[in-house]
Design a protein that fits this description.
Length: 552
């Protein structure tokens, strides 16, 4: 630390985004390189954005090569992070594709979360990542939560705690692949109906409820040795000003997290360019307030240089002490040393492809997806489908959120494998009313319908429901009085919107292994054993699930 100037110490607190691809414009490259090699920011985080727009996922070798190049340019080794909530596949192609967290809880076995932690740590280190922003310690007890939902292990704090602890244990298991792991989003993001990417959310719970429910998984994470805790852009009137996000609250970050819960690791803000912060605070002001509150790492400030300038000015005018900055810098440098960056900051790119997306990892991911599938309703024993009847009488609909979505492709391929003559119809949320009507007409004359609905959480959507005219299509199918089998690939609460379906399967994830799993469940190719990690209000309680034996 003594080798760093006062400004360079402040810059160590800043983590900036990258997308893993080569820069398309020299101006972007120059700006990025300036932050790394001249300002000496402390770290990077992989995002799937380019010029503010959604970009293709990164490729493993390209990503590792880019990270090595940035490490060579850095005066102090960079800590490189990723929101690897379902393994690296969330951000990087050709890596192990795990389902969302809620699927793990539905499987009932915390050991599966431990395995995910091990594999995610190994693949992360192979590409040059040392910091995972997972596990999600939020207790999703609000069915209308538009941004946590299936990212959480469920609504029971004891269950969430067990799976959080299991993931941490797995990620820390191999000293040769040591990573930092992060419990998020403190003080709890589960009981909200607002996406903090868009606006500030509020938790109205009183302090006893916060202590017994929201904070239980964070206590478990701390006890299990979690390295860092991420803040939430959520106001908590029971703890502080109802207009102040927890990310900027000294009472919450220092008073509760540091002093009461005894957390001594890294406190990292959620992204500071999110609406929950950016709509109320300028980049520099947010950075200063976050440091004052007790944050060690300023994640993705909207203007990194402005954030550094503002904190530097706050130190010079005495608003923030140099001691306070040095406390955070020391935690950051110790964390970097703990993951071996002092000894080696580069990865062997020749080994990348042999270390990621292994058969072992893919088998584990498929096993978890299979075990998670939950049967919530099965009127007249409609499931499993019999292929002898289904060939002529069943029409399969795949409902997705966007025209370019690859969701549903694995589902369709698996249906074709089991039923080569199946009628498959695809519809998406961007289709016109006339196109939706045409999709409905194409399925006319069926004896039964299977609807595979891909409805999941995504930043800035504000909802995890089916979009566009897709709900009307489902209602039109139900109105035919023919049995409708509804498969929820993602949001498990959709039964509330379509209560008249004959059968309801929940898979808790939109990834291909979950698509494969539900087709196996539909045709009785595996037993169905999953249990709901959440309550579907008015229809099924947490822990419910109809067991269905394999028909094979």
């Amino acid at each position: 630390m003594v080798s760093l100037t006062a400004r360079e110490r402040i810059a160590q607190l800043v983590v900036i985004p990258f997308n893993g691809h080569k820069f398309r414009r020299s101006r972007d490259a120059a700006k990025f390189n300036n932050l790394v090699s001249r300002e000496h920011v402390g770290g990077l985080i992989l995002v799937n954005l380019a010029d503010g727009r959604l970009a293709a996922k990164a490729e493993p070798l390209e990503t590792a090569t880019f990270i090595n190049r940035m490490q060579r340019a850095a005066k102090i080794p960079l800590i490189v992070a990723g929101d690897f909530e379902r393994g690296l596949s969330m951000r990087v192609e050709a890596t192990t594709v795990f389902p969302h967290a809620m699927a793990f809880a539905a499987s009932g076995d915390p050991d599966e979360a431990r395995i995910e932690g091990e594999i995610t740590a190994r693949e992360s280190r192979a590409l040059g990542f040392q910091w995972i922003f997972f596990p999600d310690a939020d207790v999703n007890n609000n069915p209308d939560n538009p941004i946590i939902n299936i990212r959480s292990y469920g609504e029971d704090p004891a269950t969430v705690s067990r799976f959080v602890s299991a993931f941490i244990a797995g990620a820390h298991a191999d000293p040769n692949n040591r990573v930092l792991v992060t419990a998020k989003h403190f003080p709890g993001h589960g009981d909200t109906a607002t996406d903090t990417h868009m606006n500030l959310a509020t938790i109205a719970a009183d302090r006893p409820r916060l202590e017994s429910l929201e904070w239980a998984p964070f206590r478990a994470a701390i006890k299990s040795g979690v390295d860092s805790i991420m803040t939430a852009h959520i106001a908590v009137p029971a703890l502080d000003d109802p207009a102040l996000p927890a990310t900027l609250s000294p009472k919450i970050l220092t008073g509760v997290l540091r002093d009461e819960l005894g957390f001594g690791g890294l406190i990292v803000t959620d992204a500071l360019d999110m609406g929950g912060i950016a709509h109320g605070f300028a980049a520099g002001d947010a950075a200063v307030r976050a440091v004052e509150a007790g944050a060690d790492v300023l994640l993705m400030p909207a203007d990194p240089k402005a954030a550094i300038d503002a904190v530097e000015a706050a130190v010079k005018n005495g608003r923030i002490t140099q001691k306070r900055i040095d406390e955070s810098v020391m935690r950051i440098l110790i964390a970097k040393a703990r993951v071996g960056l002092a000894a080696s900051k580069l990865v062997d790119t020749a080994r990348v492809r042999s270390l990621v997306n292994t058969p072992e990892g893919s088998e584990a991911a498929q096993r978890i997806a299979d075990r998670s599938v939950t049967l919530v309703r099965n009127e007249n024993g409609i499931l499993p489908l019999r292929t002898s009847q289904s060939a002529a009488g069943t029409v399969f609909y795949t409902l997705t959120e966007g025209t370019a979505s690859v969701e549903g492709m694995a589902f369709s391929a698996e249906v074709r494998r089991s039923l080569p003559q199946a009628t498959l119809i695809r519809a998406d949320s961007m289709m016109s009313e006339a196109a939706i009507d045409a999709a409905f007409q194409r399925g006319g004359g069926a004896d039964r319908y299977v609807v595979a609905a891909f409805a999941s959480v995504a930043p800035n959507r504000g909802s995890a429901a089916l979009g566009g005219s897709l709900p009307r299509l489902v209602q039109d199918l139900i109105a035919t009085k023919k049995p409708v089998v509804f498969v929820a690939l993602g949001n498990p609460y959709l039964l509330r919107n379509f209560p008249d379906v004959a059968a309801y399967l929940a898979a808790y994830s939109t990834v291909p292994p979950s698509e494969t799993a539900v087709v196996k469940a539909l045709f009785g190719e595996m037993p169905v054993t999953g249990k709901l990690p959440v309550t579907i209000p008015g229809y099924a309680k947490v822990g419910y699930g109809i067991a269905l034996a394999s028909a094979k």
